[in-house]
């Protein structure tokens, strides 16, 4: 109670506001981790499309590389100049960067409850989605 985060409008004055902030930060971190996973899946999709367009299966990739989670990230230059792909990757990166920066700003307040929310949010994401 009586903590202020990011802006004067986020001033916790009641227990309900504290609970809402606690849950909100956990959900924010979960959204960030989900966005990271989505961006990686999108990169794997782009890589598969590129490999399929060349009709190749790189011999240096192990069989497990067909799994989305272990797929290496392609570079934009290797994929080509498709504007839609570049815009989608840029948008995912921008959203991921913005959310990560916001979570970092919250962690900088060195409020134990907020740091606890960040840790719980990461744990819940891994527990829920992996």
UniProtKB/TrEMBL annotation:
Q: Which Pfam families match?
A: Ctr
Q: Which family does it belong to?
A: Belongs to the copper transporter (Ctr) (TC 1.A.56) family. SLC31A subfamily.
Q: According to its UniProt record, where is this protein located? A: Membrane
Q: Which residue ranges traverse the bilayer?
A: 12-32, 100-124
**Where is this protein chiefly located?**
membrane
InterPro entries from the UniProt entry: Cop_transporter (IPR007274)
Superkingdom of the organism of origin: Eukaryota
The Gene Ontology terms for molecular function here are: copper ion transmembrane transporter activity
| Record lineage | Eukaryota, Fungi, Dikarya, Ascomycota, Pezizomycotina
Q: What is the protein name for this chain?
A: Copper transport protein
Q: Which residues form a coiled coil?
A: none
Annotated membrane topology: Multi-pass membrane protein
